[in-house]
Amino acid sequence: MLFFVHCVDKPSHHEVRQANRPAHVEYLKANLDKIVIAGPTLTEDSQDMTGSVFIIDLPDRAAVEAHFAADPYTKAGLFEAVVIRPFRQVAPVK
User: In the 3-class helix/strand/coil scheme, how is 37-77 assigned residue by residue?
Assistant: First the structure.
């Protein structure tokens, strides 16, 4: 089942993101079979990251919550909020 996940960074936590980025990227690489698309949200000038967006394929919400609980960014306390919603892909048509 697909889920949309929007993680919002805590204000003034740029250093936390940068310090944990290598571990986060390795976590992503280890889980590519679950990730449909992922990337950071950016400031208006595209110079800084403000959060993350994922479309992830996991069996249920509990699996999504477990996946994000294990993410190095979550463990480091980077996120102010994490929004998880079921998602239905309609385009492009598969």
Answer: EEEEEECCCCCCEEEEEEEEECCCHHHHHHHHHCCHHHHCC
